[in-house]
Each structure stands twice: as structure tokens, then as C-alpha cells.
Amino acid sequence: MASLAPRARPQSTAISSREELDETSWEKAFLEATGDTMIAESAVSHADSAAAMRGLLRTGLLLNTDLRDRPERFFKAHRLLARHAVAHGPGFWIRFTVHFNLCMGTVLAVGGEEQVARLNDGLEHGELGCFALTEKLAGVQSGLLVQTTADYDEATQEFVLNTPTVGAEKNWISQGFTADKTVVLADLTVGGQRRGPHAVLINLREGGQLVPGVSVGDMGMKTTGNDLDNAWIAFQSVRVPRSSLLNAHATVSEQGDYELSTPGMAPFEMIGQRLYTGRVAVAQAALSYRRKLFEVTKAYADSKPIWSPLTRTGDAPTMLSSVPQLRALFDEAEVTALALEAFVAGLEAKLCEVLKVGGVPDASLAHEIATAKVKAVEASIDLCWRLKQEVGSYALMGSSGFVHLDFLNCCKFAEGDSRVLMQKMARDRMRQFGKQLKMGGTPNLKDEEERLCASLAKALSGVKGDKRAEATIWDEQWKDVYALAEAQMARTIAEASA
Fold it and tell me: Between 86 and which of 64, 292, 386, 470 could a Cys-Cys bridge form, CB atoms 3.0 to 4.6 Å apart?
């Protein structure tokens, strides 16, 4: 399950009052600390929401190291917050996961021992973190492509961060207007040689003010989550110390030598591992949101009387939830959700084992996690959208929860766009199919996956080796590509539930 040898785990700063809580007491305290009035989108500004997040950090109910030490608690916190999104929007959930998973989680994953040992030092001050990956010309569908530069200055032993073009500005950075620290993904150059995307942890603000050379701008009004600040960020000759490089797997010595300390691990892999925990959290969030929205809507439908030709004088009124198509949708949603919730829960348990030893999911677990992310989100979108069509004007009411359906759209492109994940699934399966043919195997055309692989292989056979032509044909065969991914995911879930 883990493809990387466990790393040594330095002791973390502990908050004694929090450590003494059992799980029931902890959950009660967490719910109290994240009460409705604290995170209601319509009632708070960016600053108010950030202040609430800082207050949560100071409680010590969740440590910056809990993704490693108590991952079950990390995931539970995400599930609890996701249910708030129905009534209050997804802003606080996103703020929460950006800090704990993307920012601090990246430090846990690729930071050195000293960097990880200091991870909880900022909790008592409520220091917020953000994650500066995506850029204006490199969004969620581009893969790990960054144009922000980090050039090592050997004379001063500093990295110099720059945004060379407008297209390289960091874009849609959640919590970018209020965060104190940020993990920046930049194209590293040492001794004149480019080393690819690497992560550096820097101060974004000191004493509440942006550090010199950093500029930010507001992304503007959104369809939901307006209590969350989203910013573009640019760097102009921002100097940070050599120790800013997250150095568990790659270091730059005092002499200016670049060294990989984990042989065989590419820079992309150093950073990309953080997405696995995010994908599980996103899958759980989509399922939690769907469950809460259906609970709220069913309570309304169970109490909403409607006219019916079957109702006679003296009979109890007929309720909206008795309409056949709505009743059938409630039943279908429960069956679908229970299966997906069980699948995701099983993955969480597997992933927690890996996280506790500082490992990395193997290829099989990584595929299962991608499957969970895609299917949980897509099923939630489908079911919630269909529910909206069945409840009439109720869905237009601000209190119904349907106003925040775009939370599920956020889930669709968060932590790896669902379409990109499906493309990767299909490409990986085609590589397996190619190896199978080279070994003398023949495709079983009665099997949906192998039939689709054979069809794609035939389409690509005439342009083998011509990458541009292969990409063109791959795009032309997009229906089969996504059908292949769907077939893989169906098999993966079936095998897990067998």
C-alpha cells in the first residue's frame, strides 16, 4: 500500500487540553467551535470568516500535524463542516481544507524534519496558510505546470521568487487575502539549471502586512462561498531563505548544490502526493452535502400538503413526498449514497494506515482514491440536480440549500479535475493493454474494458510514435476514452464491495 519507506516522525507540539478529549467529546467541542453563526456566508466578510478560522486554530481541536498523527479526526472534521455548506455555503469548508490539507499537509508530505517539527508553532497565534499552485495560464486542467520562478542566489543563499508574466500570476488562491503563510509552487533553478516544480514555504504577511514584493488582487464576486477570499498573487524579486525549500526529498546545500535525497522521486511526485488526502476529503464532502440537502428537502416534502384526486374529505392530507417520481428519487439516492459512502469509508481506512507511517499510496490505492473522488462528486451532482427539478419553487428559496449547489461544481474541479483523472485512468489502462498484447495476450471482446481498449488501440495503430497525431486521435475518440474510465471505475467499486 505504501511505496515509500516511512520517514522518521519528530515530536509535535501538543495542546494538552485537546489531547485529553475522547472522540465523542472532541466531536461535540468541534461542532460548538464551528457553530452556524460563525460561518454563515451571508453574515460575514472575508476578515470575519478568517477570524473564525483563526479562533478554531487557537482551540487546538485540530493540529497541523493531525493529518499524520490522527488522520481519522482530520477526515471527520471535513465531513462535519461539509454539512454546514447546505445552509451557509462552502466557503468555510474550503478555507479549512486549504489550511490543513493543502498548505500544512504539503509541509507534512514534503517538508524536512525541522520544518515539520515547527508546524504547530503558529497555532496559538492563529496563523493561516494557503496554497499557491494554480496560475492564470495553468489551471486545474493543466496538470502540475507552473511558470512562477524560484532562482537560487548562491551569494546570499536565498531563493528569489518572480512572476515573469501576467499569465504566471497565481490565480484563485483560496485564503490568499488573509493568510500569513503560503506554500508556493515554483519552477526551481539552481546553478543555472532548471529543476522543475518545487514547493517553498514562505511568509506571505508579517504583522498583518504583505511582505515586500508581493501583490494580491481580488478574484471578485462568486456564485457561492463569498465569505471565502480568493486572490491572485504575484511576486517581484521576493527573497526567501534557503531553508524555505521544503526539503524532505530535495535539498540545496550551502555550496549551491542541488541534491535529490529520495532517489527516483520526481519533483512532481514530491508535491502531487498531497492530492490523495484532498480527493478523499472532497469525495466525503460531496456525499455529506448531498445527504444533508436530501434530509432537508425530504423534511419539507414530508410536511408539504398537495392536492390529490385520491384525497377525500376527512382523509389525512397527501404530502409532496408521496409523488411517485420524488419518492423513487429519494429511494434511489439512498441506495446510491450508501454504496459510495461505504466505498469511500473503506478507502479512508486504507489511506489512514499509509499516512500514519509517512508513506505514499501505491498505484492500486491511488486509482481507488481517484475513482472515489470522481464517482462521489458526479453522483452527488446528478442526484442533487434531479432533486432540484422535482421540488418546484421550493428550490428557489434561499433557505432550501439549493442556492449553494455550486459547491459540488467546486468539488468537481478540486484536487484534480474529474475529467483529467478519467483521462489518466484511460491512459494507464491502455498501457496495461499494450503490455498484455506484447506478451501474446488476446483481448476478450465480451469484456467492456478490453473491447474499448481494442477499439482505441485500433484507432491509434496507424500513427504509432507520432505524438501529435496520437493526441489528435485520442481527442477524436473522447467518448470511448471516458467510457473506458467509467468501465474501470465500475469494476473498481464492484470489486471493493464484493
Answer: 292
